[in-house]
Amino acid sequence: MRGAIRIDSYLCGDSLESIADDVRAGLSRDFKELAPKYFYDERGSQLFDRITSLPEYYPTRCEREILNRWAPQIVALSEAEELVELGSGTASKTRALLYAMAGTGRLRRYVPMDCSESVVIECADELSVIYPGLEVHGLVGDFERHLEHLPDGERRLFAFLGGTIGNFYPEVRSRFLRYLHTLMGPNDHVLLGTDLVKDVAVLEAAYNDSEGVTADFNRNVLRVINQELDADFDEDAFEHVAFFDPDACWIEMRLRSLRDQDVRVDGQVVHFEDGEEIRTEISSKFTREQLAQEFNQAGLGIEAFFTDSNGHFALTLAAPR
Ligand code: AVJ
């Protein structure tokens, strides 16, 4: 028997105007900025996929190592019967969690949430074939805005993996964790994937790979804007920059203008000085102490903390206190 599939979509309100407003506002600041969510059109998602298998980019491999080793423990500790995955992507890493949940005989429902409709549909179809009888309730939406639409549940495990929370500025991050806490029942848990502070050379190499895939990924945001809005960025007129900022404790990615240039964006002209930089992403790195403090401030207590064998990446299991 095939399990029931339901998919709710909330992205229709995400109009072109709101993207245009956001991009225009970001490019009219003194220090220009574009949000990392614009990296991920089809080409951007493919480039990110290639990043995850680069020798220098350790986070994906480390997180998979942790999940493969500790998923049964995570499931046992949380007694989870339902997996809610924020930013599910292709759910390849989640398989270990679902497998462990199915092993307890109490896997009830899988709730993948992603901003790409095709990703949610594909993943819902695939998993309901692998786990006949599994109820899949997919949500197409932005986990920064549509979490309120998550279905109610009991003994849920909210998984937010990949280190994506590192893209949020600290204020946004603490608001996000506090909001997540308000959605959680007393028996729910959250599993958060975060990259950890480590040797700067290792951190910086992960964002300056020798094949230049990260550079292409970074510049892809300009193509996305050219396609989505009426813009004429010349990708080759910008170079990739990535460095660790020790004060902010994050990797920062930028695009540096290689000349003095005017770019037309949605009917307006944006000027770039030679050498001027646009911030395109921050990727925060954490310590265990920092995480404990942030969970604590959100009303959550850490129940378990797992790292890979090199101590590069962490999965933190937490619950309402
Ligand atoms: C998907 C946000 C976790 O911050 O490492 C990879 C994105 N950017 N290489 C990260 C990314 C450049 C990635 N996250």
**What oligomeric assembly is this protein in?**
single chain
Query: Any guess at the CATH architecture?
Result: 3-Layer(aba) Sandwich
Category by helix and strand content: alpha/beta
Overall residue-averaged pLDDT value: 94
Instruction: Tally the structural domains.
Output: 1
Query: What distance lies between the first and last C-alpha atoms, to the nearest angstrom?
Result: 39 Å
- Please name the CATH topology: Rossmann fold
Q: Please report which band the strand proportion falls in: under 5%, 5-15%, 15-25%, 25-35%, 35-45% or over 45%.
A: 25-35%
Strand order within the widest beta sheet = 1-4-3-2-5-6-13-12
Number of strands: 13
The main sheet comes to:
8 strands, mixed
Number of helices: 9
User: Could you tell me the radius of gyration in angstroms?
Assistant: 20 Å
Low-confidence stretches: none
CATH class: Alpha Beta
What is the assigned CATH homologous superfamily? Vaccinia Virus protein VP39
Overall 3D shape: globular
Identify the bound ligands: N,N,N-trimethyl-histidine
Features:
single chain, 321 residues, Rossmann fold, 8-stranded mixed beta sheet, 3-stranded antiparallel beta sheet, 13 strands, 36% helix, binds N,N,N-trimethyl-histidine
